């Protein structure tokens, strides 16, 4: 059984304002890494992979594209990029335990084109050269970094002219009935069952819905992407707006 990372009183406030948020996020993902994929599949009813495939389509990967998947976790999106026409694929994550799972999964798979490379990295301070990538993705991870706007500026720095940033992130449905049902499920049902499956006492599955509730909504996320140097942003809601794909482009 893992140790507590998030306390109830800490989550009563905005977890994004905590100075120790990066350390807490790393600790909680270390605690749940082994059961992360199982919980994702069960609690999204298998839709999480469909959402990632939608992100791949929006990225419009070509055979000359170099792709970097930030906050890659256990590598689900990274591996899908490795099945695309991409020339090269890198998966970066802040939590070594998640990367261990990603590498194990990747070793069991066949890669028709690019063999993904997994590296430890911080989204707010990338060890990548200026204008060295054509596509940068981050799925369900932007809200977990210490300074999201700093991360967005880093993504802009690393992307080449004409490059695309694909942000897949949870949002709250705009329909009030669906929003109410979604909140009941994500705040009441999921934290209990996911914590039970993962044998987790870190508070990860209580933090996750709270982190969505207190993070940028789709409109403010669009504004943040533009503010950080992107020329245009297109957004596509998925599954009644429970998550949204935002694609920012760099001017050519």
Question: Key features?
Answer:
252 residues, alpha/beta, 7-stranded mixed sheet, globular
Q: Would you write up a description of this structure?
A:
This protein has 252 residues and is of the alpha/beta class. It has one domain (8-249): Vaccinia Virus protein VP39 (Rossmann fold). It has helices spanning 8-11, 21-32, 36-43, 47-59, 76-82, 96-107, 148-158, 176-198, 204-213, 218-227, and strands at 66-70, 88-93, 117-120, 133-139, 159-170, 232-238, 243-249. A seven-stranded mixed β-sheet has the order 3-2-1-4-5-7-6, sandwiched between helices. Helix 5 links the parallel strand 1 and strand 2. Helix 4 crosses helix 5 (76-82). The chain is globular.
Compile the SSE list and pairings.
Blueprint: H1 8-11, H2 21-32, H3 36-43, H4 47-59, E1 66-70, H5 76-82, E2 88-93, H6 96-107, E3 117-120, E4 133-139, H7 148-158, E5 159-170, H8 176-198, H9 204-213, H10 218-227, E6 232-238, E7 243-249
Parallel strand pairs: 1-2, 1-4, 2-3, 4-5
Antiparallel strand pairs: 5-7, 6-7
Helix pairs in contact: 4-5, 8-9
């Amino acid at each position: 059984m893992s140790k507590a990372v998030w306390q109830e009183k800490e989550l009563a406030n905005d977890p994004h304002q905590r100075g120790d948020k990066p350390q807490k996020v790393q600790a909680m993902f270390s605690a749940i890494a082994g059961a992360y994929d199982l919980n994702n599949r069960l609690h999204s009813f298998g839709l999480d992979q469909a959402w990632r495939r939608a992100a791949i389509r929006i990225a419009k990967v070509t055979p000359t594209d170099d792709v970097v998947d930030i906050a890659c976790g256990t590598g689900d999106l990274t591996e899908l990029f490795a099945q695309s026409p991409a020339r090269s694929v890198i998966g970066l994550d802040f939590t070594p335990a998640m990367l261990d799972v990603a590498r194990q999964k990747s070793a069991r798979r066949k890669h028709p084109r690019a063999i993904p490379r997994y590296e430890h990295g911080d989204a707010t301070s990338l060890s990548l050269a200026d204008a060295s990538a054509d596509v940068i993705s981050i799925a369900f991870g932007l809200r977990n970094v210490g300074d999201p706007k700093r991360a967005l500026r880093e993504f802009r720095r690393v992307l080449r002219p004409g490059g695309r940033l694909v942000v897949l992130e949870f949002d709250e449905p705009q329909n009030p009935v669906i929003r109410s049902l979604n909140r009941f499920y994500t705040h009441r049902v999921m934290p209990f069952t996911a914590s039970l499956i993962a044998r987790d006492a870190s508070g990860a599955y209580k933090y996750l819905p709270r982190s969505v509730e207190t993070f940028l909504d789709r409109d403010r996320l669009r504004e943040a992407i533009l503010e950080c140097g992107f020329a245009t942003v297109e957004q596509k809601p998925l599954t009644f707006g429970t998550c949204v794909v935002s694609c920012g482009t760099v001017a050519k």
